[in-house]
Amino acid sequence: MSTGGSEPRPTRNQRREAAREKARVLREEQRKRDRRNKFLIQGGVVLAIVAVAALIGGLIFNSVRPEGPGPQNMASDGILLVGGEGGIEAVETPAIPAGGEPTATVPDESGTVANVVVYVDYLCPFCGQFETTNSATMRTMVEQGAATLEIHPIAILTNKSAGTQYSLRAANAAACVAEESPEAFFDFNALMFENQPEELTAGLTNDEIKDIAAQAGAASSVDSCIDDTRFKSWVQDATERALTQPIPNSELASVTGTPTVLVNGKQYVGSLEDPAEFQAFVLQATGESYSESEATPTPTPTPEAG
Q: What range(s) does the Thioredoxin-like fold domain occupy (predicted)?
């Protein structure tokens, strides 16, 4: 019986060829998908690498800044405070240039003035004891012209403040005050120790440090300097110099701890809590300097023969 217009059934060979062709097409489509996925994966990896590199670069930029100049009025790595008509004044000096070295202060060698030099870390509890005990005495001596006071802020306890780098931030803030408002430095220094945080705590925030600067009478321009950690590189360099180089105008090979206190080049190692002991040391050191200056009289010119 005839089947009319129906197509003949494919042979076994035809079915086998059709299956092979379909498999070939599927394999080709799979290869195309694999190539497309590989391209997308590679592109994603490249983008991820670029993003990570940008993040690392940003972190490095923020943490390792290019070396810049030091603060003005701290050419010796410290600020020199003397008596003036308005009370305590800072001796103005140019900034240490980037990569430059400090210039040692020339002390008063008259034998009648105590040249007091202190190296402090604002997180150091012993510095806090010394400052609390002797700040008023030093203020009086400087105001009356009986002493000069040179303060060197350094940061040897940067890793002792729960990751906030308080010592470094505080020393930077002191440098900011020295540059922007040197007349407020003595009060700023005193207030920083009056509000001193405990070691191993996070320390004061930048906003709290800025409030202290304002209380001391510093200009508002100090704020951005504190937030930007403008003198971070200088603090690190000054600290390294203090710990590895001889201390000018003394026989000390370096600073080995804070506070390091010198009077006319002689190191004070007495009580940190007895103001009378420090005052006695100042008088003794000044008296010895006076005796030395008297022992070397100025030569009298020989009169010419008539």
A: 115-281
Domain identity same for 163 and 28: no
Q: Does residue 227 belong to any structural domain of this protein?
A: yes
> Which of these, 78, 79, 77, 74, lies nearest to 94 by C-alpha position?
74
Q: Which has the closest alpha carbon to 80: 185, 209, 155, 190? A: 185
104 in a structural domain: yes
* Strand, helix or coil for residue 209: helix
For 99-145, the pLDDT digits (tens) are 999 999 999 998 899 999 999 999 999 999 999 999 999 999 999 99
**Distance between CA atoms of 201 and 122, rounded to whole angstroms?**
13
149-205 pLDDT, tens digit each:
999 999 999 999 999 999 999 999 999 999 999 999 999 999 999 999 999 999 999
- Quote the pTM value: 0.76
Q: Which helix (H) or strand (E) holds 263?
A: strand 260-263
Torsion angle, alpha carbons of 217, 218, 221, 223, to 10: -100
The total domain count for the chain is 2
**The token pair that represents 231 in the structure block:** 């003198």
Please give the Cα distance from 15 to 9 (Å, whole number).
Answer: 10
- Kindly state whether residues 109 and 197 are assigned to the same domain: yes
